[in-house]
Amino acid sequence: MLTVEPEIIERYVRDGQVKLVFRDVLNHGERSVRTSEAAACAGQQGRFWHMHEILFALQNEVYATGNDQLVALMQSFAQQLEGLDQDAFAQCMNDRVELDRLQANDVEQRSNGITWQPIFDIGDVRLFGPRPIEEFADVIEQALQ
Question: Cα angle vertex 16, ends 117, 54, to 5°?
């Protein structure tokens, strides 16, 4: 998604035609949980999408890190976010402030048949897996009509 996400944002989100919503699926164990918590904790300070970009760009580092080191890794990622209150982020991660909400969202996603990602719901159309920008554009244009 990251390869086409900027284009979707530029074409459709920036001018308000489309709302882009990310819904977590916790299907990779502790890594999914901790990365989702990191994005949500950054989101409390208006930095969800910035953390989202870092997490996807550095996902190999996430998968190379043991579960017991994930919080420290997320805090190192958070340090890359200019203007983020690092203490508030650390407290959010350590207190697991977002965990219940994320787990409830995961249950909801699974009840809707979404057990892996990426899956994209655009209007009444569900796209599975990464797609070229042209396919997204076609489906979005149809949904906007």
Answer: 40
